[in-house]
Each structure stands twice: as C-alpha cells, then as structure tokens.
Amino acid sequence: MALKALDRRSLPDKVFEQLTAEIVGGGYAPGDALPSERELSEQLEVNRHVVREAVKRLEQVGLVRVSQGGRTSVLDYRRTAGLDLLAIVAEHAEPVADLAPLLASALEMRAGIAADLARLCAERAPRALGSELLGIAARLAEGPSGEELLELDQRFWQLIVDGAGNLAYQLAFNSLIRAVHAQRELSRPLLEDELRRSGHRLPIAEAIAAGDPARAEAAARAALTVVAPRRRSRSRGR
Q1: Closest CA to 111 of 218, 6, 214
Q2: What is the CATH number assigned to the segment(s) 11-81?
Q3: I want to staple 106 with a disulfide (CB 3.0 to 4.6 A). Which of 21, 170, 179, 227 is the partner?
C-alpha cells in the first residue's frame, strides 16, 4: 500500500513544539519544574499519554530531565543539548533580540565546516561534480530570487557535502543550514549579500573543479565569513 501524506502533525509533536518554545524562549528557566503530566494534560486538553510522549522527546534532545517520582526539571540546553536542537531554537527565537546572535553563531560555525568540506571535496570528488558546481554558480550569477535562490545554494552545498564524503560533517551541516534558514525573511537578505560578495560561489566551484584543496578551502572561508549580524559584546564591570 502506498504511503499517503498526513494532513496534520501528531498531538505529541504539537505538545513537544509548544513546550520547546516555552523552554528556549525563557518561559521556564534552568532548574524550574515543568507542570505535572496531569496539569499539562488539563491545560493542553490532551491525554496523559500524549504529554508523556512529548516529555520523552524533550528529554531526548536535552531540554529536561525526568527524575524518579515524576518531577521533570528544565535543563540549561546550552550545556546539555546537541546540534540537532539548533534549528528548533532558531525556529522559536524572537526575530530580532534573540535570533541575531544565534544566527551569527550558526554562520560562523558554517564557515569553519564549509571550508573543510570544500577542501575535502576538492581532494576526493570526481571531475564531473566540479562541472556541476560551475553550472550552479553560473545560475546563481543570473540573480534568481526567493525560494529558487535558496534551493540553488542548498543544492550547491549538498554537492560539496556529498563530494567530501564525511557523514559527520554532512549531519552537522544539515543542522546548520536548517538553523540559518529557520526564519527565511531574515536569512534571505544575508544570503543575497553573501552571494554578491563571494562571486556567486564561482571561486569555490573553480577551485574544486581544478582539484585544488587549498584554494577551495580559502575560497569557501572567504565566501562565508560572517559580516552580519554581529554579536552583542558583553560589558564587564559596568
């Protein structure tokens, strides 16, 4: 029997998303206790099994700890969660105050990983992949907009990830891309500016096509160097 698309998310997914938004948005501070299963089921008008499944997911991603006796304590996700939570945090951050420093962090990390991916791709990928990258760079230079721009650029980097042949990098880069584009109305202008500054990825594609790892690494790092948004500096003793 063929699989069919579902027209709605499951109830545990919805409860998980609501609780995640509350935790990463500061509604619950580290050390706080979540309401009991009974209280949550009453507030959200779902049965306790649904709440239990959602809380189990929160524990799996490092947002809470369930202790013996049923108490569910909120954790400091900055200390306990993994990279898989990055996109979820970005999706629920406030667009200006909270998302800007988070986006800057994701962009900085993306630059470091992408530089090494480009180096590995230039070392390992077949020549045909370089030709495909050159073709995408040419299409990016034509000035596509909106979703087409995002899809082309993601295709460009997916080819580089595939050519690098490193699964750990691939999974990490997937998480970073999801985080960077979690709120596209903010990320799209950054990407458009980045593409203009970087020659629409052409220097990266040319270096990979030429099989030059050092030049590919340098081109990728230069293309993805964070210009904006800047993190707010902390003032000390003031």
Answers
A1: 218
A2: 1.10.10.10
A3: 179
Residue 95 is predicted with a pLDDT of 52
CA distances from 208 to 16, 107, 134, 160, 183 (A): 42, 22, 9, 9, 30
Position 148: which residue type? E
Q: For the ranges 30-39, 62-71, 173-182, which has the lowest average pLDDT?
A: 173-182
Name every residue whose Cβ is closer than 8 Å to that of residue 160 and which is 6 or more positions away in sequence: 114, 117, 118, 121, 133, 204, 208
In angstroms, the CA 157 to CA 91 distance is 22
Indicate the length of the chain as a whole number.
238
What was the pLDDT predicted at 228?
46
Cite the beta strand spans of 62-118 per DSSP E.
64-66, 72-74
**195 CB-contact burial (10 Å; exposed 0-12 / middle 13-18 / buried 19+):** buried
**Which helix (H) or strand (E) is 193 found in, with range?**
helix 184-197
Which secondary-structure segment (H or E) carries 32? none
- Whether the per-residue pLDDT at 55 is higher than 90: the answer is yes
Domain 86-223 matching CATH 1.20.120: the answer reads yes
* pLDDT tens column, 191-202: 888 888 889 999
- Residue 22: predicted pLDDT: 87
Q: Which two tokens stand for residue 58?
A: 């929160």
Domain map (residue ranges) of the chain: 11-81, 86-223
Q: How many CB atoms lie within 10 A of CB 213?
A: 18
